[in-house]
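Usage

Read records sequentially. Each one opens with the input sequence:
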Amino acid sequence: MAATKKVENLIKQLAQKSWWMTDKDYLRRKIKAIEALGESRDPSAVPHLIKALSDSDLHVRRYVAVALGVLGDKSAAPALIKALSDSDLHVRAHTAESLGKFGDNSAVPHFMEALGAPDSYVHSHAAEVLDKLIDKSHVPLLTKALSDPNWNVREYAAKNLKKLGHEVGN
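and closes with the structure output:
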């Protein structure tokens, strides 16, 4: 699908810094372009947003994670799964939310890992998304998680096994 002129212009704004712009101005322009690309619902923006997901600026990565969720294009799932291990906890949390919007069960093992995150912000986002995705096909994964060294992971696994109708010992 060919990009519209508006989307092409936004992609250029994302990629090119004008000589007269300060770094702060360029960052603002990039973020506005990312938001507009997400809202455009134009799938031709996805590859450019995926590329921006590895930007050195954590604010850019945060906005990209949100924009990809707004776009809802499942082709972004592999890049978002990779971003679940970003160094910034907000990027990881926004990434989890975006993946949850896709309803893609292939991300469940990665969310189970995120339950073991040291920060509760990422943990709670992962649990919220998992609650929407977990089904009977994940019983083996949940059963294995009962022996995870992280208390949050074990508690979550037990809760969802019970919800799925499986007995869990103490």
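Summary fields computed downstream for this record:
- Residues 5-104 form a domain with the Leucine-rich Repeat Variant fold (CATH 1.25.10.10).
- The chain has a mean pLDDT of 86.
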